[in-house]
Each structure stands twice: as structure tokens, then as C-alpha cells.
Amino acid sequence: MSKDSVKSDVQKHAATDVHPAAKPFLFLGSEKFKRNFFLFPLGGIIITTLIGVLYPLKHPAPWDVIPGSWAVFGFLSYSFIVFMARPLFKLLSRDESYYGEGGLPDPFVSAEGHDGSDHEEDRP
Questions:
Q1: What is the overall mean pLDDT for the chain?
Q2: Does pTM top 0.85 for this prediction?
Q3: Are 110 and 103 within 8 A, CB to CB?
């Protein structure tokens, strides 16, 4: 299968099976965008560092003497959150049967098996 046929298949799929509001964002799935995505946060770090150097704070914190310290702080915070995802998941997750299988015993309160009628005369 050639690259052109794959590209045409993607374009056909994009034209037929995608919600109209999603069409402007289809470029996010391209290989070129995925390969170069790291440039976006890198550019943000460079821009915020330059702004911090060009417009210094009136009352800087002790660590603000290092240019780009907030960018480093943000990167370390983000990394901490990413690395803590697995331990937090293990700590906070529950089994599928944690809340029980049968639902509530009262059919007027339980959502399972409810036929949608909510008449007052049906209640005891």
C-alpha cells in the first residue's frame, strides 16, 4: 500500500465519518504534527523565559535570580504529576465489584430494571 493510497483513505474517512465540528482539528492526527509536537511546549518555555528576562519582577523571590526558574519549576511540577499518576491510581482505584452487583433493593429508588414510569399511584 503506497503513501498516496493511505493518504486518500484518510481523506475519505475524514470527509465522511467525522463530525463537522471535528474537521478543523484533523491536523492533530497527522504524523508531522505528532513528530513536531515537542516544539510547542519548548517554544512556550523559551517565550516565558524571555518575558521573565525582559520584564523582571519588582520584588523577586530568592530563586528568581536564576533566569527561567519558573519554567524549570513548571517542568518539574508537571513531571511530578505525571510520575504520580500510577501510584495515585493504585491508591485510589477500586475493584469493579467494590460497590456491589445487585443495585438497590427498592425498585422505586433503583435505576436498574426501571421501565421509566414514575407514577405516584404505583408507589405503596
A1: 76
A2: no
A3: yes
